[in-house]
Queue: 3 jobs
Job 1
Amino acid sequence: MKKHITPFYIETLVLVLVFVAVILTLTQVFGMAKKQSEEAKLLTAAVTLAQNAAEAFSVSENDEKLLALLDEGGNANLNSADGAVEAFYGADMKPDRGGVLRVRVERNAVSPFFSEGAIRVFRADTGGEIYSVETAATYAEEEGS
């Protein structure tokens, strides 16, 4: 008596193909999820750094004071071309001159007691903007002026 096991092989082959397709699909899904997670972490860091820069902007009447507040170990500088203050940070939001995030603060002094500003956070490697915020600050008159 001869046994025909061809249907068994076909079923096994179909199951293996389905299994491989599921594995490939899940690998892609997990890969995209990891990439989105890294982008979300970078966006969260960018928002926090912009918020910190906005707070520093609100208490500094000029770019030199802003630079002094943002500079931690040489991570910030005053751009001589346009007067913007730039600070560099790592993905962990720690000051890092060669970091992956660049915070740029541009000031437009409307009067001695009022300034408008734009804060932008860029990827240092690609230059792509991650987050930006517009801000303004009012400064008190100094005593004796």
Job 2
Amino acid sequence: MNIKEVKEEIRRSVEIYLDKNEFGEYNIPYMKQRPIFMVGAPGIGKTAIMEQIASELNLALVSYSMTHHTRQSAIGLPYIEEKTYNGQKVMVSEYTMSEIIASVYDVIERSGVQEGILFLDEINCVSETLAPSMLLFLQYKTFGNRKLPEGWVVVTAGNLPQYNKSVKEFDVATMDRLKCLTIEEDFGVWKAYAYQHGIHAAVISFLEVNPDWFYSIRTTVDGTQYVTARGWEDLSRAVQLYEKKQFCVDRNLIQQYVTDVEIARKFGIYYDLYKKYQTDYRVSDILSGTSTGELIKRAGESSFDERVSLLGMIYENLNLRFRKSVETERILQTVVKFLRSVKKKSADGEEEVISLLEGCVNTLQEEQNRKAMANSLSSSQKREYQEAIHCLRDYQEICVTAPEKEKQFPMIKKKFDSQAKRHKKQVEASKDALEHVFRFVEAAWGEEQEMLLFMTNLTANAVSMEFIANWGSKSYFQHNQELLIYDVHGELQKQIEQLEW
């Protein structure tokens, strides 16, 4: 299974484990909920998908790497307790609560979220002293004499023996109590993730041409040389910041993340070419529809590597526009929902507009803090919360400058209308840019593999598909008649029309 398939399988498992009957009881009894055991190469994205699942399902998340734990931290420290049995006092060994179990209760207390996921990584690489306790936990969800609270799903991960000499095989009795999922590396799946999370276009296009170099671990006379999905993502972030600071991206930087000398060398050469293509091809002209016939001719006569690089640069720019439109849509949807409530309550004379807006801000901050304390707040969600709060704060400032109560909401409406118009203008500009790219690809390469590659990138990326689903693309539908995507109005527009100012 690839990482996407594994994620969907884990998500389904979590949902059925937490499904309840009419009496509030779990349909699959807690002790019958098999822990999930992912096995795969290091750096393939096991931890990342757990963060995504927790965020998507609004669950709390507690993560631990078991190789960092001792027997004492996992099961607790011993202490002596005096007890009485049959009238006779005896001293009995007890244990403090496990650090891991305590962390679960801490998250519940801080966030108020009662259900969640306990993710234990590298469970088949624990120390000899901890191994028996680890097996006991997998079988009975107990560390020491403390059980994991109900409503918490156990998901674990481990390495394959060829990647870690510390790997210990589980016995049949333990394996028969687990749901085992084996993950295989898959560049096609990772590419969709890469576009969605803003991975540098040079990394994506390099791997597009050389997919076999996406994941590699090999032993040489100089030792183990490897490159992983995690390594490519971390390199991408470093390169983006190096470019921002105008630092030189050289082999020394690349080999800090890509330890395979040959792959690092080839990526270094490719990156230099990529920067040259950035200078030679004016992507802004392509997106604005003003590219010259000379530029189209050069693209049509270029090598396949150069074409892939150019498409990567084009799509990177488009993707930034798509993401901005989609995020702004979500932010304005949140804001308009609160404004409808504020208008109704202020019209009823219940509270003043400024205090109602303060209540809206507090609600959003509490939601954000709760998700953050539950470790289920994604970076995109954090940005959306912050932007919505900032917007509502701006409306409060309007109330301060317009103390006449009857003028406050009309001024807020005017401000919101201006924001909505800017958003619509930005969406239209992004739609135009997408159409211009289609015209460029058609003129340079026709309906050949370059068009297929571009369509594949659009279709595989959740952000671009959300953009197209919300606002449409005539050329996309023309080139992909079989894809069941419908040109629907954005949810924001529906809510604006329903809003009685």
Job 3
Amino acid sequence: MRGAMSGDNRTSVFIGTTVLAAFLMSAVILVVFQPYAGPSWMVALALFILLSVLASHLSFRVTSTGSVASLEFLPELGCLILLGPAGALVESVVSGLVTQHFIFRNQPRKVAFNVAQSALSIGAAGFVYIALSGEPSLSVLTFSQAFPAFVAAAVTYFATNSVAVSSIMSLSEGEPFLDIWIRLYGKTVLFDIVVSPFAYAVAYLYVRWGVLALILAVVPIIGLRYSYGVNIQLQQLNRDLLRVLVKTLEAQDPYTSGHSIRVAERAKIVAEQLGLRSKHVRIIETAALLHDIGKIGNEFSRILRQKGPLTPDQRQLIRSHPERGVEIIQSVRALDPKVLACVRHHHERFDGTGYPAGLAGEEIPLGARIIMVSDTIDAMLTARPYRDALPVAVVRAELLKCTGSQFDPHIVKAFLATGLFGEVIDSTSHPIQATLSEDEVEPPQRSIALS
């Protein structure tokens, strides 16, 4: 029996299938809806190709792997109304080849997929437009006849485009299709549908004013591009600034430098292993990044560098850092309230003996339970003033030992399933011998794991 195809092979098969489907659809469209190709038709086609190239040039990146979003759908849908499926198809393919090769300078495989999925999207929209009695025309547009057909065509375009792009991203990035779709389109699909009538307006004005309508369309397209991308870009900037802030603060202490970033990375991996949606993964990652922000200040710095046991007052101060952290970040309006809950409760123990609220089991926010495990593991794997970094085998054994008391068993199982520790071993095979700080031991369960 053959093994399952690798992700790269599945991606290649999907690209080939998409290209083949686009070729067959294009052949049918060009035969059934033969382009008029008169002078006015050719002029309109050339102008809409230029407008489409401009819209692509104003695109912006939406993922770390280079996926982009643009308003190219506006001239494509406008061209459909004026020139019909054949004209819109030609416009889509020509502008796509130009922008993919000369503007984005993509590899041939990526060019082929992007052009093919765009052709499929506008082709499917064209069939719907004609089926609902939409009548392509450069001389007259009847609103009652053309607009309902246009709305249906636009919805078909977005559905086809989003399914194709989300599918290829799911295969290439190894994430669930629905998570990818929500990440790429969840916050923009409604905006796309609301903005799409602008394409109808451009087509209507072109019928009345000709070239002047496209010149006037450039300004709102530029404006729409910036309103379209500003939310995503601000979110990316906020995440980057948070990482820079945390990294700068932790750099002041060699023993905690990089701790929060590592905890955030591990928490993200565990959240993904649990199959959480992309939005929830981002919330947990952000909370993990900020979980120790309440330890800002010289008084905490002195305690964290202290080699001896903590005094009762110092212990109480350490216990205050989750609430202090919430006080610091709660004024940031862009943060989801769930981030605050995860930061506040990341020291709650599964058996209910943690702090600040003494929550137990599933009363503790899921993100906080994940951060507790990730935080503890990084603390044990990192050198402290009072001890060296612990071996991975010892850390793994301690993790298993405290499962059910300090840690949620499901979270521990998910962490071990990520492969970060390799194979699970018997927790009794490695005796635990280490000098610990008061902050790492929480009664009634004495443990080298953080409380």
